[in-house]
Amino acid sequence: MSKNSTIITIGRQSGSGGRVIGEMLAKELGIPFYDKELLDHAANHSGICRELFENHDEKPTNSFLYSLVMDTYSFGYSSAGFTDMPMNHKIFLAQFEAIKKLAEEGPCVMVGRCADYALADNPNLFSVFIHANMDWRINRISAKYLKSAKEAKELIQKTDKSRSSYYNYYTNKKWGDAASYNLCVDSSRLGVEGTVKLLLGTLDIL
Question: Could you give the number of structural domains in the chain?
Answer without folding.
Answer: 1
